[in-house]
Structure formats: C-alpha cells, structure tokens
Write a structure and sequence with these properties.
The longest helix has 34 residues. It is built from 14 helices and no strands. The chain is mostly helical.
Length: 279
C-alpha cells in the first residue's frame, strides 16, 4: 500500500468532486449494472444460440411491429406535437390551462388504464372505432391499435420539450423579419423553424424511446398475436411465462441495442441541426 505524505493525501481527498462521485455511483448502480447484467445473461447462451434466438421469425416480426410502429408514432407526434405546443404558446382561448394540463395526462395515467380507455374507445362498438368499422377499418386489436396507443403515450414528450423553447422566442425577431418584407411562411421557415429543429428531434427521440418500451396499454389494445401485432416487450413477457429466460434476455438485448443505435442517430441529427440553426 502506498503511503502518501499527509499534505498530498489531504490534497487528493479535497480534489475529489462529491457531485461527480455521487453521480458516478448512481449511474453505475441504476444504469450500467442492469445493462451489464442483461448482456451477461444474454451472452451466456453462446453466440450461435444468441443469433438463432435473435433472428427467429417470431422475434423479427416483433421487432418490425415494435420499432417501425414506434418510429411512425414518434414522427407523427413530432408534427402534431409541434402544432399543439405552438397553439398553447401563441394563442389564448377558454380553458387553456385545462387543455395544457390534459396534455400531461399520459404521464400520470397508469398504462393499464390507458389501454382500457383506448380499447373501449377504438373497439368496433366504441365512439371512434364504431365510425371506422363500417368502412372495414378495425383499430382495436390490430397493429393500428398499437400505433394509436404509442401516439397517446408519447405525445407529451414532444409538447413539453418544445414549449419552453417557443416561450423564449422573441416576437421582435419575428416582427423584424416581416418588416424586412418576409411573408408569414418565409418568417416561419427561415426565422422560427431552425431553432425549433433540435427540440423537435429531442421530443421525437424521447417519444420513440417511450413507445418502444410501452407494455401496459399496448397489451390491452392489441391482440398480441405473433406475426400480426405482437410487440417485442410482450414477446419477452410471454417467454418469461414459459420460463424461457435465455430467449427473453436475448430479445431484450437486441431491443436495447437497436434502440440505442436509433437514439445515437437522432442525437447526431440534433448536433447537426444545432449547427444548422447557428449558421
């Protein structure tokens, strides 16, 4: 053991940053260790079996339903969430505070309750599902129902990310643009939209992450039939019910890796959009 002189030891102890140390322990305990345990469990089956489980037909179908539907829901909310945030920031109307609070409802509502509400509303006898049923469009217990549930639970992430940025926008800049001859569309596209790109991408990334991990509402509004509307989180749960822990951890690892890759891609787009906004 190295014996440091007392002044040097005191200097080393005082140089340790308490916030950084606590942050390090916290991240290791609640993020890094669980991820490491998942990888360790998944890789214990061997490379060949890992590949076989990860690329099985039912797993590939579940990835397709999960990732493609979550991405579409996040993109739709990227557009509609921007519109909702714009209306809440720029317009005054009756019950505005109530509407603003309702946007947060998916945060507070238990996902199982959300699933029951959506399944009731979008079933063939529901208020909305009953309108589409005569047209041959079935929403509940199909992949379309999964899409609706993902839209519902991911909308607040876009709205709440954009609202502070829109509130900080100075109206003088907008007025200066119009005084220089730009019309409303040119002002929005060249002055207002560039600073909004990073928060929109952030909201899309957060909404996508939330949609990929959603279980409670989707399992109720979907039929969870393989090759139809079965999502990966439900497939993992089904395999755990059958005591197939290896299969569950392998699919969970693939889910984690693909989600991480997509989030890194979106973060790269955010960095690019920030530089674009500055230029």
């Amino acid at each position: 053991m190295t014996n440091y002189p007392l002044p040097i030891l005191r200097s080393k102890l005082t140089s340790i940053s308490l916030p950084k140390t606590i942050t390090g322990f916290y991240l290791i305990l609640f993020l890094i260790l669980p991820i490491a345990a998942l990888f360790s469990s998944a890789l214990s089956v061997g490379v060949g079996e890992f590949r076989q489980i990860a690329t099985s037909k039912i797993a590939l179908s579940a990835y397709n339903v999960t990732f493609i539907t979550a991405l579409l829901a996040a993109l739709v909310n990227g557009l509609m969430g921007t519109l909702v945030a714009w209306v809440l920031v720029r317009y005054e109307f009756p019950c505005k505070k109530l509407v603003d609070a309702i946007v947060d409802l998916p945060f507070a509502l238990p996902t199982s309750v959300a699933g029951v509400v959506l399944a009731t509303l979008y079933s063939e006898k529901g208020w909305i599902g009953g309108v589409f049923a005569p047209l041959g469009i079935k929403i509940a217990f199909t992949r379309l129902g999964v899409f609706v549930a993902m839209i519902f639970i991911s909308l607040p992430f876009v709205v709440r990310t954009l609202q502070p940025v829109m509130q900080e926008m100075e109206k003088e800049v907008e007025e200066a643009s119009r005084s220089l001859g730009a019309n409303q569309l040119q002002t929005f596209w060249r002055v207002l939209f560039p600073p909004l790109i990073p928060p929109i991408l952030t909201g899309i990334a957060l909404g996508f992450s939330r949609a990929v991990g959603e279980y409670g509402s989707v399992v109720i509004i979907s039929s969870s039939v393989p090759f139809k509307d079965l999502i990966a989180p439900v497939l993992i749960f089904q395999q755990l019910e059958q005591y197939d822990y290896a299969g569950a951890t392998v699919i969970g690892t693939v889910l984690l890796l693909v989600s991480l890759g997509i989030l890194l891609l979106i973060n790269g787009l955010q960095q690019w959009s920030r530089r674009y906004a500055v230029e």
